[in-house]
Amino acid sequence: MTAVNAKMSLRFQQTVFHAVLLGFVLVVSGVQRDAIAESAIPQVVTCPGEYRQHLQGVCADPEGNLFWSFTSELVKTDSQGKLLLQIPVASHHGDLCYHDGRIFVAVNLGKFNQPAGQAKSWVYEYDASTLKERNRFPVPEVVHGAGGMDFANGSFFVVGGLPRGIPENYLYEYTPDFQFQKRHVLKSGETLLGIQVAHFHGGVWWLGCYGKPPVLLKADAKFQMQGQWNFNGAVGLLGVNSEYMLVAVNRRTPNQKNEAKLVPARIQPDGSLSFVSEETSTPSESQR
What we know:
This protein is mainly β. The chain has one domain: Glycosyl hydrolase domain, family 43 (Tachylectin-2, Chain A, 5 Propeller). 2% of the residues lie in helices and 49% in strands. It has 1 helix and 22 strands. Strand 9 and strand 10 form a beta hairpin. The longest helix is centred in the first third of the chain and has 5 residues, at 10-14. It is globular and about 40 Å long. The chain starts with 9 loop residues before the first helix and ends in a 13-residue tail after the last strand.
């Protein structure tokens, strides 16, 4: 097996959490993902049901269970998409991540993409087994609205909205108990409404953004830009191995509900992503 991410945190070097998901071994929270069969293409996974608001992000636990954040509903399925749990949650629940038996979700109870002072940014913590809420952590440093997050190299990183006209993005670093550490500046240029999805995979950050067309940003562990492409990763990214990622796709139904699935995308030699089969849908700006 080929190690994808050599930059593991010391904590996870000691205990590595594996899960078989769609024929692959995953290590959760962006630490390490090894392929059982590098040439195999991951299967499509469909989340059951229809939801009032669109998908914001997806993550996986060590058993391969999937967690889907639909803005005002949190859903847990198995690796094949069988419904296990579903709970209503406060809007706006955004992108989410798994860490140490818990699910952490970036939440904004105020306004997005406005001058500082109008957002109410939080991280909500849930038990990964039961989806019972365990804690809430204020993250007021995310002044334009917390919208996404991941755990990497011993820290949580939160991303979020931005007013128009700002020519860069920000990642806010926190300790495991959510003590603020630093605001990292990403020289990405302006993206529509900031960053929606943050996922650390293969030693690099994959950052999904809205736009017409949507934009995928890629940065190293020190937040130096590695690339920028027109690609829709704005509602969920899940690393599989050095060849593939699973990318969330949200579709608006004829009855104005939302449904979602994970579809495979290939990591190209230039570092970009391309869908194995073209199934793309981008939430409109008004759905934010």
